[in-house]
Amino acid sequence: MPKNIEVIPSKNLYKWAKNFKRIQDRFYDNKFKLRRLKQIEDFIKLNGYKNVYHIEEVRLDLEIPVAVDSNNADLILVTDQGYSRYPLTGIIEKINKLLLLCPNLYLCLNRHYLNIDNKKLSYAVPEDYQQAITFWLQTELKDNAMVVDISRDYIDYGKSFTWSCPDRHYYIRKL
Amino acid sequence: MKLIEDFSDYPMVVDNQAIDRQNYIRYRMGRLKHELWLKSRKSKDTVYVDEYDNFIIQQLNLGNTCYFGSAGYYVEDLIDNLTVIEEWPVVKTFYPKAIIIKNRKEIGDLFPNYFNNFVIINNRGDQWHNIEDWKENIKNYTRAMAPGCLFFYSFRDTQTVLWNRLKENHYDYFYNFGKSLEEFGLHIVWHDIQFAVKEKDGAGNYDVLENPDTTNGNIKFIFKYE
Fold this sequence. Notes:
CATH architecture of chain B: 3-Layer(aba) Sandwich
Number of strands of chain A: 7
CATH class of chain B: Alpha Beta
CATH topology of chain B: Rossmann fold
Largest sheet of chain B: 7 strands, mixed
Number of strands of chain B: 9
Oligomer: heterodimer
Number of domains of chain B: 1
Shape of chain A: globular
Strand content of chain B: 15-25%
Low-confidence stretches of chain A: none
Number of helices of chain A: 4
Strand order of the largest sheet of chain A: 3-4-5-7-6
Radius of gyration of chain A: 18 Å
Order of helices and strands of chain A: EHEHEEHEHEE
Structural class of chain B: alpha/beta
Mean pLDDT of chain A: 93
Strand content of chain A: 15-25%
Distance between the termini of chain B: 55 Å
């Protein structure tokens, strides 16, 4: 007997992303760590930050001294993938708001989401996409912040856990 | 403790039970339509599809249809002469009729000029390559297409590499990619390329939504193979 067709709406993927890293971790034993997560932990430890306000989406299980209140933070850490899904102007607005709360920001962006709404910049950026992202941040924030790119230079072929922790890492300090 | 950058930097758990389980989970994470199959098989009289599936079904040529890398068994009850091809052997454990291949050249070897419809829906394995390798994959598919075959190809812009999202007009980049497939005899007969529209809400905030249709891909083409 022919079956009925029922058309149902699709789900947005980001809604189930919180446990993405923990699911991936189960494929391995527990003797490894993502280098970029260790980099975040080391940055926080070696620079003496004691109260880190962490804005996250995917649960990363970082070993860092967490502040529960952004007003008392000495560093704001953003690993939330959603920040990369803001329009470019929205990302800059968010950065400026965070810098008003705390002068030190460690921002992680997912290169594959940036400029999600296909907007044209009014100035030329470098051909190298990674350098272009840094150039864009430094240009937009030049009057009020110092931007340091602390990412790794590589091509992301989808095997680098970028949907667990975004790949482009920036230390941004309010001037 | 070893520090890793990449999936391949560290061995996955190796006991057989764990391999089967992790391969199934990894397969499922990349094949979103598998969920529709799970839902449909619980029903005696209903097959669940989404709007894009329904659109494809309305457009199909008569004849043989291939779903590659797209968990195509979820439309088995709706499409006659369906062949489901996958790269993951784990699929055989729950859908024995699946054809499992190791590389895309095998599709044309097994089914030369055979298919009247060839469907790929958001198969991530297609996109994570530089553009030459990506096009080589598509060239391999054409070997299995009969003249007049419709090629339904959809993917997400966020899972493609080696392009500059701050420099390129996204629409032009992907439309030109589609046009470039004319060199393989694939001509665009329909396309739908959409990106997120971001506007502030009443509180002055933007949403964090992804581009439209993360399940099927926000870039959709139908090509005709001539």
